[in-house]
Batch of 4 targets.
Target 1
Amino acid sequence: MSIPIRTTTSTIATPKKPSWHRKEYYTAWVYTAPALILLLIFLIIPFFIAIYFSFTNERLVSGSLPTYFVGLGNFKQMLEDGSLHRALLNNSLFGLIVVPVQTSLALFLAILINRKFRGVAVFRTIYFSPVVAPLVVVAVVWSFLYNPGQGLINEFIKAISFGHLGPYDWLSNPGLALPAIMLLSIWQGVGFQMVVYLVGLQGIPESLYEAARVDGAGSWQKFWHITLPQLRNTTIFVLIATTILSFKLYTQVEVMTQGGPENATATVVWYMVHESIHNVRVGYASAVAVVFFLIVLMRVIPVLRSVVVTEEREM
C-alpha cells in the first residue's frame, strides 16, 4: 500500500523595499511637484493651446469675427510671408555669428581668470555683472552708447581714427543695426558661459597638466590635448544653451529698434509678439510658434544625438 505524498509549492516572498527607500521616493516627488506643476501650467499646456490655435483664425480680441477652423491656412500663409522669412534669416545670422564668438570669448575669459592672482574675484564679478543686470536696462544704456550725436562708441571711433571715421547711425542703418545688437548680446551674455567654463576648468585634474609638463608639452599642446577634450561636455552644454538663447532674441530688438529699420533686426520671437498683440492675429502667431519650435528642435536634436553616440563609443 503506497502512501500518497502531497507536494506543496512554497512561494518565496519578494523582499519589500525598506521604508526609508519609500520615504525618499515620496520626498523626491514632493520636492519635484512644484516645478512640474509650473512647467505644466506655463509651458506644456500653452504649447498644446498654441497647436490648437494654429489651425484657427483666433484673434486677440474676439469682436464681430468668430473663431473658426482654417486648417493649414496659417501654415500656407507662412510660405508667402516675406517679413517672416527675413526674421528667420536674421535669427540664423545672429546665431551663426554670436554663438561661436560668444563661446570662444567665454572660454578665453575663463582660462584668463582661472589663475591665482590678487584681485581675480574682482575680474570675475566685472565679467559676470552684465548677466545679472536687467536686459531692458542694458538695452537702454547701449541705445545711448550708439547715439549718433553724443554716443561714446562714435566718440571712441572718432578718437582712434583721428576723426576720419564716424559718426555712424548704428540703430537706423539697415546694415549696422543687427551687428550692433550682436555686439550688445555678446557683451551681455558672455559672463554666463564664462562661469560655466570656469566650473569645467576647475574640474580638470591637475595631475594631467603635471604629466604633460614632465613630457615637455607647451601651453598650446596642453590646451589642445588636455583642456579642450576635458571640456567637451561643457562646450556642448554652452553651445546648446547659447543657441537656444539666440533663437529667443526679443528684448534688445523691442527696446532698441522695434524690428527696424526695414525689418533688418526683426526676429521670429519679436515677429510672433508683433503679430499676436499689434495685429491681434493670435492664430497666425501660434502657427509661427509651432513651426519655430520644430526648427529649434531640429537644430538641437542632432547635437544631443552626437553626444549620446560619443558616450556609447567611449563606454
Target 2
Amino acid sequence: MGDKPYKFKDIDVEGMVTLEAIDKADHFNEWMYQTIKPFCGKKILEIGSGIGNISKYFVRDGYDITLTDIRSNYCEILSEKFSQSPVIQMDLVHEDFDNKYSNLFDSFDTVYALNVVEHIKDDNQAIINAKKLLKKDGTLVILVPAYQCLFNGFDVALEHYRRYNITQLNTLMSAHTSIVHSQYFNAAGIFGWVLSGSILKKQTIPEGQMSIFNKLVFVFKLMDKIIFNKIGLSVISVGRK
C-alpha cells in the first residue's frame, strides 16, 4: 500500500465514466448525502467534488458550499452546473498549500471528502491540510473505501493507494481531530464490487449494475440498519477540530 507509481492524469477517463454512472443513481446519492448531513454545518467546503454527485444535494438544501477539485475539467463542469457556488481548483497536498490556500484557513464549519483520501499517497498530510480549512470546533467528514482485502481492478483503474478499515481510518483522523462518529456504509455494495471488479475484471462500474443497485437502495439501507453499520463497502469517520 502507498507505493504504487501512479502518475497524475489531467483527464481521468475511468474516473469520469464511474462518476457519470453514479450520477444517475439518485437514490444511492441521496442515501450517502443523508448519511453525512447530520455532521455538517451550514458553511461547507467539499474536497474532490468531481462532477457534483453529492454537491447538488447540499446546494438543493440551501447550504453555503464551496466546491473544489484537483482537475480543471471537473472544475469547469462544476462551474457550469453550480453557477451560484464558488468553485476552486485545489490540490489538498500541494507542496505550497499554506501559501496557496491561506485565504481559506479557519473558514468552514465542515470540510468533507468522499472517496478522495484513498487517491492521495500522503493521506496524513491530506488530513492535516483539511483541518487547516476548518473553524474551531468544525467537523471533518471523511469517507473512503473499506477493507484492503477488497482491493481489485477497480481500485487500480481509479488509482487508489489503499482501502481502510474503521480502526485505520479512525487512527488517521484521531491524530489530528477528536472522533465524534464512525461507521461502515453500504454493506450490500461489497457483492457488486467483488463480482465486477474481482471476478469479471471490470475497470469501471457498469452503468446497468449501478441502475439496478439504485432501485434497491431502500432494501440496502434497511440491511445497514439491521447490521448496525458494522460492515460496508465504505467507511466513514467524523472528527472535530
Target 3
Amino acid sequence: MSFIRNYFVDVTKRKLQHFAENATFPHFFQPDYKTLKTAFFLKGRWNKDFFKNNAPIVLELGCGKGEFTTGLASRYPDKNFIGIDIKGARMWRGAKTSFEASMTNVAYVRTQIELIEFVFGKQEVSEIWITFPDPFPQKPKSKKRLTSPQFLNRYRQIAKKNTIVHLKTDNTSFFDYTLSTIVEQNLKLLSHTYNLDNNPVDSNAASIYTFYEEKFREKGESIKYLKFRLFPEK
C-alpha cells in the first residue's frame, strides 16, 4: 500500500510541476471559459499578433503529448502549427520540446475542442489533423466524435474553404464511421488506407509517431489514415 501511495504522490507532484511550467511558456495558452466566451485576445489575430507572419495555420486536435504538432513544425518552418487538448500535463511534453528547440512556428492551447470557434476567427485555419481521438464507441455519444457532423460544422466556422482534414486512428469502427460521414456530407475523400504501414499514402502520417500510436502498435493494431476536404462538393 505504501508503494502505491508513493506512486500516486509522485504522479501528482509531476503533474503539478508540469502545470506550473506550462504557465511559463510564452507559446502555451490556457484561456478560461469566461475569457473564451467574451473575447480571447488571439482570436482572428494569430498570424498578426503571435506568429508575426502570414503563413498557413495547421491544427492538431487532441494533440496529447504534442509529438505530432512538434514533428510537423520541425518539417515545415513555412507553416504555423497549434496543438489543442484539454490535458495540460500531457501537452507539457510538446510545449517543453518546442520551447527548448526555440521553435517559433508552434503554439499550444489547452481547451475543450467544443470551444474551438472561440479560439480562432473565420477562415483562420488552413489544415486540420485529428490524431487518435477517443472513438466514443457507444452510439448515444456519437456526437462527441471529432469527425461527427456537429464537429465538422464547428471546424467550418474557422476554416478556409479549401481546408483538408486528416485522421489517424487505430479504431476500425471509428474509421468506418468517418468514411460514412464523408459520404453523407458530400465531402471529397482524397485518400485512405486501413493499414498505413502497407500503404503509406501520406508521408507525414506514416513517419511521425505519437506516444499513443506506439502503444497501439505494440498491441499489433494496424494504423488507419484518411484525408478529406472539409467543405461539401458543389
Target 4
Amino acid sequence: MAPTTAAESPLATALRDRLGDRVVALDEARRETTLVVAPQDLLAVATLLRDDPAFRFSELMDLCGVDYRSYGEAEWETSQQVTATGYSRAVEGEGPGRFDWSQRPRNEPPPRRFAVVVHLLSISHNRRLRLRCFCPDDGLPLVPSLTSLWPGANWFEREAFDLFGIIFDGHPDLRRILTDYGFVGHPFRKDFPLIGNVEVRYDPEKQRVVYEPVSIEPRVGVARVIRHDAGLAQARAEAADHWQQN
C-alpha cells in the first residue's frame, strides 16, 4: 500500500482508514482521486463505497475497459533521427493497430494488461471517485460484475465485453452490444488492426450480407501542423503581392 502523503484530500485519508490493506494503490492528480483494488476485493469495496455514510457513492456514472498494451510507448522518432522532409517524417508507423493481421505485434505485453475503470458519484458529499481493477489473467480477463450494486452497469459491462473481451462474472446477460453476432475479435484491443479483419457488404445476387477480406491497406495518418509564425505570414504576404503584380 502506498504511503500516506501530507497533502492528500480528506477523501483519500478516509479511503485509507476504512479500506486498509485492500488499497492496492491510491493516487491524486489534478484534483481527481483514483483508487485501485484487487479483483477479489472489488465487490466488497464497491459495496462499502456505496453504503458507508462516509462515502455514499450512490451513482455509477461510467464503466469502461482499458487495454494497457503499448502503454508508454511512442511511434515518433526523436529529433536526432528524423529526416527533413514529409509530414510523416517522424512516424515509424508501427504503433497499435497500424499493421496487417499477419504482421501483428507478438512481443510480450505488460503485466496486468486489461483493467476495468469505474467512475462513481456521491450526491450526498458532492464527490467523485475513479475506481480501477486490473484483470489478473490477460488470456481470460475476468472481474466481478457490479450489476448487483448498480443495475446501470449492465450495458456498460456489455460494451466492455464487446470491445475489450473483458468477462464480468455474475452479469445477467453478457453478450455483444455494438458489433454484430458474427463479429470476430474485440475491436478496442491494441492488437486489433485498425483496418479490421473483414469487411461487410450487401450482395444483391445472393440477397444477403457477405463477409470479405479487407480491401484497404493500413496507412499512417499524421495531422498536418498549421503554424502561424512570422515567416509564414511574410510568405503569404509576398505571394499575394506577386499575384497582384501579375
